[in-house]
Amino acid sequence: MFSKERLIRLRKEKGWSQEDLGAQMNVSRQAVSRWESGSAVPEVEKLEDLSKLFGVSVGYLLGAEDEIPAAVRSIEPVRKPKGRWILYTFLILMCCVLISIVLQTKSETRQLREGISQISGQYADLQFQMDQLKSELAETIESTLQNNDSLLADYSLRLVSIDREKQIFTAELTGILKDPANTVDFFAKTPDGSIIHAESVTKNPLNGFSCEIKVPREDSIQWYLSCDSKTMKLSKVNDLYAQTKLSCYISGYNNKSSQKEGKLDYDMILTIEPYDLTSMASEKITGTMKLMKDGETVCESEIVKTEYNYFAAPFEIDEVDEAEDDEYLVHVSCYDEQERSYEGYTCKILVTKSEGMTHLIFQNVDARTGQEY
Questions:
Q1: Residue 132 CB burial class (10 angstroms; 0-12, 13-18, ≥19)
Q2: pLDDT attached to residue 276
Q3: Do residues 334 and 304 make contact, with C-beta atoms less than 8 angstroms apart?
Q4: Cβ(179)–Cβ(207) under 8 Å?
Q5: Contact between 257 and 239 (Cβ < 8 Å)
Q6: At residue 253, what are phi and psi to the nearest 5 degrees?
Q7: Which among 128, 166, 214, 282 could disulfide-bond with 336, CB atoms 3.0 to 4.6 Å apart, if both were Cys?
Q8: Of 277, 272, 280, nearest to 305 (Cα)?
Protein backbone atom coordinates (compact mmCIF):
# COMPACT_ATOMS: atom_id res chain seq x y z
CA MET A 1 0.00 0.00 0.00
CA PHE A 2 0.99 3.65 -0.47
CA SER A 3 3.45 4.85 2.23
CA LYS A 4 2.30 8.26 3.47
CA GLU A 5 5.29 8.42 5.88
CA ARG A 6 7.78 8.22 2.98
CA LEU A 7 5.91 10.93 1.03
CA ILE A 8 5.99 13.23 4.09
CA ARG A 9 9.73 12.59 4.60
CA LEU A 10 10.59 13.19 0.94
CA ARG A 11 8.57 16.42 0.85
CA LYS A 12 10.20 17.80 3.99
CA GLU A 13 13.68 16.87 2.74
CA LYS A 14 12.95 19.23 -0.16
CA GLY A 15 11.79 21.93 2.30
CA TRP A 16 8.41 22.08 0.56
CA SER A 17 5.03 22.76 2.10
CA GLN A 18 1.98 20.76 1.03
CA GLU A 19 0.99 23.71 -1.15
CA ASP A 20 4.44 23.70 -2.80
CA LEU A 21 4.18 19.97 -3.58
CA GLY A 22 0.64 20.49 -4.89
CA ALA A 23 1.95 23.15 -7.30
CA GLN A 24 4.71 20.77 -8.47
CA MET A 25 2.16 17.98 -9.06
CA ASN A 26 -0.59 20.28 -10.44
CA VAL A 27 -2.99 19.25 -7.66
CA SER A 28 -4.54 21.08 -4.69
CA ARG A 29 -3.01 21.30 -1.21
CA GLN A 30 -6.03 19.34 0.06
CA ALA A 31 -5.16 16.47 -2.28
CA VAL A 32 -1.61 16.33 -0.88
CA SER A 33 -3.07 16.47 2.66
CA ARG A 34 -5.29 13.47 1.91
CA TRP A 35 -2.30 11.53 0.56
CA GLU A 36 -0.25 12.23 3.70
CA SER A 37 -3.14 11.50 6.11
CA GLY A 38 -3.83 8.14 4.42
CA SER A 39 -7.45 8.96 3.45
CA ALA A 40 -6.62 8.83 -0.27
CA VAL A 41 -4.02 7.21 -2.56
CA PRO A 42 -2.46 8.96 -5.57
CA GLU A 43 -3.47 7.68 -8.96
CA VAL A 44 -0.98 5.62 -11.01
CA GLU A 45 -0.03 8.64 -13.10
CA LYS A 46 0.52 10.74 -9.99
CA LEU A 47 2.61 7.95 -8.41
CA GLU A 48 4.86 7.96 -11.49
CA ASP A 49 5.10 11.79 -11.35
CA LEU A 50 5.99 11.61 -7.64
CA SER A 51 8.69 9.01 -8.26
CA LYS A 52 10.26 11.20 -10.97
CA LEU A 53 9.96 14.35 -8.85
CA PHE A 54 11.74 12.83 -5.84
CA GLY A 55 14.06 10.52 -7.76
CA VAL A 56 12.72 7.30 -6.23
CA SER A 57 10.89 4.28 -7.59
CA VAL A 58 7.13 3.75 -7.49
CA GLY A 59 7.74 0.61 -5.44
CA TYR A 60 9.51 2.71 -2.80
CA LEU A 61 6.48 5.03 -2.54
CA LEU A 62 4.23 1.97 -2.18
CA GLY A 63 6.44 0.52 0.57
CA ALA A 64 7.22 -2.52 -1.58
CA GLU A 65 10.97 -1.96 -1.67
CA ASP A 66 13.74 0.01 0.00
CA GLU A 67 15.94 2.50 -1.79
CA ILE A 68 19.40 0.91 -2.05
CA PRO A 69 22.19 3.27 -3.10
CA ALA A 70 24.34 1.99 -5.94
CA ALA A 71 27.40 0.23 -4.64
CA VAL A 72 30.70 1.77 -5.51
CA ARG A 73 32.69 -0.83 -7.34
CA SER A 74 36.35 -0.68 -8.01
CA ILE A 75 38.15 -2.86 -10.51
CA GLU A 76 41.66 -3.91 -9.65
CA PRO A 77 44.00 -2.97 -12.48
CA VAL A 78 45.19 -5.94 -14.47
CA ARG A 79 48.90 -6.16 -14.48
CA LYS A 80 50.35 -6.26 -17.91
CA PRO A 81 52.05 -9.58 -18.43
CA LYS A 82 55.56 -9.39 -19.67
CA GLY A 83 56.09 -11.03 -22.99
CA ARG A 84 52.60 -12.51 -23.09
CA TRP A 85 50.65 -10.06 -25.24
CA ILE A 86 48.31 -12.78 -26.49
CA LEU A 87 47.19 -13.67 -22.98
CA TYR A 88 46.88 -9.95 -22.20
CA THR A 89 44.61 -9.41 -25.21
CA PHE A 90 42.53 -12.46 -24.29
CA LEU A 91 42.01 -11.18 -20.73
CA ILE A 92 40.91 -7.78 -22.02
CA LEU A 93 38.36 -9.40 -24.33
CA MET A 94 37.04 -11.59 -21.49
CA CYS A 95 36.66 -8.54 -19.27
CA CYS A 96 34.70 -6.74 -21.99
CA VAL A 97 32.42 -9.76 -22.39
CA LEU A 98 31.83 -10.02 -18.64
CA ILE A 99 31.12 -6.29 -18.35
CA SER A 100 28.65 -6.54 -21.23
CA ILE A 101 26.89 -9.47 -19.55
CA VAL A 102 26.74 -7.64 -16.22
CA LEU A 103 25.35 -4.46 -17.80
CA GLN A 104 22.75 -6.43 -19.73
CA THR A 105 21.75 -8.33 -16.59
CA LYS A 106 21.47 -5.10 -14.59
CA SER A 107 19.34 -3.56 -17.35
CA GLU A 108 17.01 -6.56 -17.43
CA THR A 109 16.82 -6.59 -13.62
CA ARG A 110 15.97 -2.88 -13.56
CA GLN A 111 13.26 -3.38 -16.17
CA LEU A 112 11.87 -6.29 -14.17
CA ARG A 113 11.78 -4.22 -10.97
CA GLU A 114 10.08 -1.34 -12.79
CA GLY A 115 7.54 -3.77 -14.18
CA ILE A 116 6.85 -5.16 -10.71
CA SER A 117 6.56 -1.63 -9.31
CA GLN A 118 4.11 -0.67 -12.05
CA ILE A 119 2.01 -3.79 -11.40
CA SER A 120 2.05 -3.03 -7.65
CA GLY A 121 0.89 0.52 -8.35
CA GLN A 122 -1.91 -0.70 -10.61
CA TYR A 123 -2.95 -3.25 -7.97
CA ALA A 124 -3.03 -0.59 -5.25
CA ASP A 125 -5.08 1.72 -7.48
CA LEU A 126 -7.49 -1.10 -8.35
CA GLN A 127 -7.89 -2.00 -4.67
CA PHE A 128 -8.59 1.65 -3.81
CA GLN A 129 -11.22 1.85 -6.57
CA MET A 130 -12.85 -1.36 -5.33
CA ASP A 131 -13.04 0.04 -1.79
CA GLN A 132 -14.67 3.20 -3.14
CA LEU A 133 -17.21 1.16 -5.11
CA LYS A 134 -18.05 -0.90 -2.00
CA SER A 135 -18.51 2.27 0.05
CA GLU A 136 -20.69 3.91 -2.60
CA LEU A 137 -22.81 0.75 -2.95
CA ALA A 138 -23.31 0.55 0.85
CA GLU A 139 -24.32 4.22 0.96
CA THR A 140 -26.76 3.72 -1.92
CA ILE A 141 -28.41 0.72 -0.24
CA GLU A 142 -28.61 2.54 3.11
CA SER A 143 -30.02 5.65 1.47
CA THR A 144 -32.66 3.64 -0.39
CA LEU A 145 -33.79 1.87 2.77
CA GLN A 146 -33.93 5.11 4.75
CA ASN A 147 -35.86 7.04 2.11
CA ASN A 148 -38.67 4.52 2.25
CA ASP A 149 -39.79 5.76 5.68
CA SER A 150 -37.95 9.10 5.95
CA LEU A 151 -39.80 12.24 6.96
CA LEU A 152 -37.36 14.40 5.03
CA ALA A 153 -36.86 14.98 1.34
CA ASP A 154 -33.39 16.31 2.10
CA TYR A 155 -31.40 17.58 5.09
CA SER A 156 -27.98 18.75 6.21
CA LEU A 157 -26.41 18.76 9.69
CA ARG A 158 -23.20 20.74 10.12
CA LEU A 159 -20.91 22.08 12.85
CA VAL A 160 -21.37 25.83 13.42
CA SER A 161 -19.14 26.76 16.36
CA ILE A 162 -17.24 25.42 19.39
CA ASP A 163 -17.03 26.80 22.94
CA ARG A 164 -13.72 25.42 24.16
CA GLU A 165 -14.07 26.70 27.73
CA LYS A 166 -17.55 25.23 28.27
CA GLN A 167 -16.81 22.21 26.02
CA ILE A 168 -20.01 22.76 24.03
CA PHE A 169 -20.47 22.85 20.27
CA THR A 170 -23.37 24.17 18.22
CA ALA A 171 -24.86 22.21 15.33
CA GLU A 172 -27.29 23.47 12.68
CA LEU A 173 -29.94 21.33 10.98
CA THR A 174 -31.58 22.47 7.75
CA GLY A 175 -33.98 20.38 5.74
CA ILE A 176 -37.11 19.99 3.63
CA LEU A 177 -40.07 17.94 4.87
CA LYS A 178 -41.76 15.46 2.55
CA ASP A 179 -45.16 16.39 3.91
CA PRO A 180 -46.44 19.48 5.80
CA ALA A 181 -46.30 19.17 9.60
CA ASN A 182 -47.80 21.24 12.42
CA THR A 183 -44.93 20.61 14.85
CA VAL A 184 -41.25 20.00 14.14
CA ASP A 185 -38.79 19.09 16.91
CA PHE A 186 -35.05 18.49 16.55
CA PHE A 187 -33.29 16.83 19.51
CA ALA A 188 -30.12 14.96 20.44
CA LYS A 189 -29.49 12.01 22.75
CA THR A 190 -26.14 12.00 24.61
CA PRO A 191 -24.26 8.81 25.64
CA ASP A 192 -25.60 9.08 29.22
CA GLY A 193 -29.21 9.09 27.94
CA SER A 194 -29.91 12.81 28.32
CA ILE A 195 -32.23 14.43 25.76
CA ILE A 196 -31.40 17.95 24.49
CA HIS A 197 -33.94 19.82 22.33
CA ALA A 198 -33.36 22.68 19.93
CA GLU A 199 -34.56 25.95 21.48
CA SER A 200 -36.62 26.86 18.42
CA VAL A 201 -37.33 25.69 14.86
CA THR A 202 -37.76 28.21 12.05
CA LYS A 203 -40.04 27.10 9.21
CA ASN A 204 -39.52 28.29 5.65
CA PRO A 205 -41.77 28.17 2.57
CA LEU A 206 -42.18 24.87 0.70
CA ASN A 207 -41.85 22.78 3.90
CA GLY A 208 -38.33 24.02 4.63
CA PHE A 209 -36.99 24.50 8.17
CA SER A 210 -33.80 25.28 10.10
CA CYS A 211 -32.73 25.12 13.76
CA GLU A 212 -29.66 25.11 16.00
CA ILE A 213 -28.82 22.98 19.02
CA LYS A 214 -26.06 23.18 21.66
CA VAL A 215 -24.72 19.84 22.90
CA PRO A 216 -21.76 18.70 25.04
CA ARG A 217 -18.49 18.04 23.21
CA GLU A 218 -18.87 14.25 23.28
CA ASP A 219 -18.79 11.49 20.71
CA SER A 220 -21.56 8.94 20.02
CA ILE A 221 -24.32 11.57 20.05
CA GLN A 222 -27.52 10.44 18.28
CA TRP A 223 -29.70 12.90 16.34
CA TYR A 224 -33.50 12.75 15.91
CA LEU A 225 -36.29 14.68 14.17
CA SER A 226 -39.92 14.52 15.24
CA CYS A 227 -42.83 15.72 13.06
CA ASP A 228 -46.26 15.59 14.71
CA SER A 229 -46.43 11.98 15.98
CA LYS A 230 -43.62 10.52 13.86
CA THR A 231 -39.92 10.35 14.85
CA MET A 232 -36.89 9.39 12.76
CA LYS A 233 -33.20 9.01 13.52
CA LEU A 234 -30.82 11.06 11.40
CA SER A 235 -28.09 8.69 10.29
CA LYS A 236 -26.71 10.32 7.12
CA VAL A 237 -24.67 12.89 9.04
CA ASN A 238 -20.95 13.46 9.45
CA ASP A 239 -19.20 12.77 12.73
CA LEU A 240 -19.58 16.27 14.20
CA TYR A 241 -17.48 15.32 17.23
CA ALA A 242 -14.58 14.43 14.94
CA GLN A 243 -14.87 17.89 13.39
CA THR A 244 -14.16 19.43 16.81
CA LYS A 245 -10.81 17.62 17.01
CA LEU A 246 -7.46 18.03 15.25
CA SER A 247 -5.42 15.22 13.77
CA CYS A 248 -1.78 15.46 14.79
CA TYR A 249 1.39 14.14 13.16
CA ILE A 250 4.84 14.57 14.71
CA SER A 251 8.18 14.46 12.91
CA GLY A 252 11.59 15.74 13.95
CA TYR A 253 15.23 16.06 13.10
CA ASN A 254 18.48 16.50 14.99
CA ASN A 255 19.41 20.16 14.57
CA LYS A 256 22.80 20.01 16.31
CA SER A 257 24.50 17.89 18.93
CA SER A 258 27.65 17.99 21.05
CA GLN A 259 28.97 14.67 22.25
CA LYS A 260 31.87 16.25 24.13
CA GLU A 261 29.64 18.25 26.43
CA GLY A 262 27.16 15.43 26.78
CA LYS A 263 24.35 17.57 25.39
CA LEU A 264 21.92 17.08 22.54
CA ASP A 265 19.93 19.87 20.85
CA TYR A 266 17.18 19.16 18.32
CA ASP A 267 14.04 20.75 16.86
CA MET A 268 10.62 19.12 16.79
CA ILE A 269 8.43 19.91 13.78
CA LEU A 270 4.70 19.62 14.54
CA THR A 271 2.37 19.34 11.56
CA ILE A 272 -1.37 19.59 12.22
CA GLU A 273 -4.02 18.93 9.57
CA PRO A 274 -7.81 19.16 10.11
CA TYR A 275 -9.98 16.10 9.51
CA ASP A 276 -11.37 15.71 6.00
CA LEU A 277 -14.91 15.83 7.43
CA THR A 278 -14.74 19.62 7.63
CA SER A 279 -13.63 22.34 5.25
CA MET A 280 -12.40 24.61 8.04
CA ALA A 281 -8.64 25.17 7.66
CA SER A 282 -6.23 25.78 10.54
CA GLU A 283 -4.30 29.03 10.09
CA LYS A 284 -3.18 29.35 13.71
CA ILE A 285 -2.25 26.70 16.28
CA THR A 286 -1.91 27.71 19.93
CA GLY A 287 -0.59 25.47 22.66
CA THR A 288 2.43 23.68 24.09
CA MET A 289 4.47 20.56 23.51
CA LYS A 290 6.11 18.71 26.40
CA LEU A 291 8.94 16.23 26.49
CA MET A 292 8.15 13.59 29.15
CA LYS A 293 10.55 11.09 30.72
CA ASP A 294 9.56 8.57 33.40
CA GLY A 295 6.26 10.44 33.90
CA GLU A 296 7.91 13.80 34.54
CA THR A 297 8.21 16.88 32.30
CA VAL A 298 11.78 17.34 31.06
CA CYS A 299 11.10 20.53 29.11
CA GLU A 300 8.16 22.43 27.66
CA SER A 301 7.95 24.74 24.65
CA GLU A 302 5.25 26.84 22.98
CA ILE A 303 4.15 25.94 19.45
CA VAL A 304 5.01 28.61 16.88
CA LYS A 305 4.52 28.93 13.13
CA THR A 306 7.66 28.68 11.00
CA GLU A 307 8.48 30.31 7.67
CA TYR A 308 7.54 27.06 5.93
CA ASN A 309 4.02 27.18 7.46
CA TYR A 310 4.84 24.34 9.86
CA PHE A 311 4.01 24.55 13.53
CA ALA A 312 7.16 23.84 15.53
CA ALA A 313 8.37 23.67 19.11
CA PRO A 314 12.17 23.76 19.67
CA PHE A 315 13.68 21.69 22.50
CA GLU A 316 17.08 21.22 24.09
CA ILE A 317 17.92 18.02 25.96
CA ASP A 318 20.84 18.43 28.37
CA GLU A 319 23.14 15.91 30.06
CA VAL A 320 22.36 12.91 27.89
CA ASP A 321 24.37 9.93 29.13
CA GLU A 322 26.33 8.70 26.10
CA ALA A 323 26.67 5.22 27.63
CA GLU A 324 22.90 4.67 27.97
CA ASP A 325 19.87 4.97 25.71
CA ASP A 326 17.09 7.42 26.59
CA GLU A 327 13.37 7.33 25.91
CA TYR A 328 10.98 10.31 25.78
CA LEU A 329 7.26 10.78 25.20
CA VAL A 330 5.97 13.84 23.32
CA HIS A 331 2.75 15.29 24.77
CA VAL A 332 0.81 17.93 22.83
CA SER A 333 -1.96 20.23 24.08
CA CYS A 334 -3.19 22.70 21.47
CA TYR A 335 -6.19 24.20 19.66
CA ASP A 336 -6.80 26.29 16.55
CA GLU A 337 -8.77 29.44 15.73
CA GLN A 338 -12.01 27.40 15.41
CA GLU A 339 -11.39 26.10 18.98
CA ARG A 340 -10.80 22.55 17.74
CA SER A 341 -8.38 20.86 20.08
CA TYR A 342 -5.83 18.07 20.41
CA GLU A 343 -4.70 16.63 23.74
CA GLY A 344 -2.52 13.58 24.27
CA TYR A 345 0.70 11.74 23.53
CA THR A 346 1.72 11.78 19.89
CA CYS A 347 4.96 9.85 19.60
CA LYS A 348 7.88 8.22 21.42
CA ILE A 349 11.48 9.36 20.86
CA LEU A 350 14.32 6.88 21.34
CA VAL A 351 17.79 8.41 21.68
CA THR A 352 20.38 5.74 20.85
CA LYS A 353 24.16 5.86 20.49
CA SER A 354 26.10 3.66 18.08
CA GLU A 355 29.53 3.96 16.44
CA GLY A 356 30.09 7.37 18.00
CA MET A 357 26.86 8.83 16.56
CA THR A 358 23.54 9.73 18.19
CA HIS A 359 20.33 8.65 16.46
CA LEU A 360 16.75 9.81 17.04
CA ILE A 361 14.04 7.22 16.35
CA PHE A 362 10.37 8.30 16.26
CA GLN A 363 7.60 5.80 17.00
CA ASN A 364 3.84 6.37 16.92
CA VAL A 365 2.01 5.86 20.21
CA ASP A 366 -1.59 5.75 21.39
CA ALA A 367 -2.69 9.30 22.25
CA ARG A 368 -4.39 8.23 25.48
CA THR A 369 -2.03 5.64 26.95
CA GLY A 370 1.30 6.53 25.34
CA GLN A 371 1.80 2.88 24.35
CA GLU A 372 3.65 2.10 21.10
CA TYR A 373 1.64 0.67 18.22
A1: exposed
A2: 47
A3: no
A4: yes
A5: no
A6: -150, 155
A7: 282
A8: 272
Say how far apart CA 232 and CA 226 lie, in whole Å: 6
**Cβ count near 172 (within 10 Å):** 16
Task: List CB contacts of 139: < 8 A, sequence separation 6 or more.
Answer: none
pTM over 0.90: no
> With 50 as the cut, is the pLDDT of residue 68 above it?
no
How confident is the model over 138-157, as a mean pLDDT?
A: 67
Cα 368 from Cα 218, distance rounded (Å): 16
User: Is residue 372 within 8 Å of 348, Cβ to Cβ?
Assistant: yes
Distance of CA 368 to the CA centre of its chain: 18
Q: Mind spelling out the 3-state secondary structure of the chain?
A: CCCHHHHHHHHHHCCCCHHHHHHHHCCCHHHHHHHHHCCCCCCHHHHHHHHHHHCCCHHHHCCCCCCCCCCCCCCCCCCCCCCCHHHHHHHHHHHHHHHHHHHHHHHHHHHHHHHHHHHHHHHHHHHHHHHHHHHHHHHHHHHHHHHCCCCEEEEEEEEEEEECCCCEEEEEEEEEECCCCCCEEEEEECCCCCEEECCCEEEECCCEEEEEEEEECCCCCEEEEEECCEEEEECCCCCHHHHCEEEEEEEEEEEEEECCCCEEEEEEEEEEEECCCCCCCCCCEEEEEEEEECCEEEEEEECEECCCCCEEEEEEECCCCCCCCEEEEEEEEEEECCCCEEEEEEEEEEEEEECCEEEEEEEEECCCCCCEC
Amino acid at 322: E
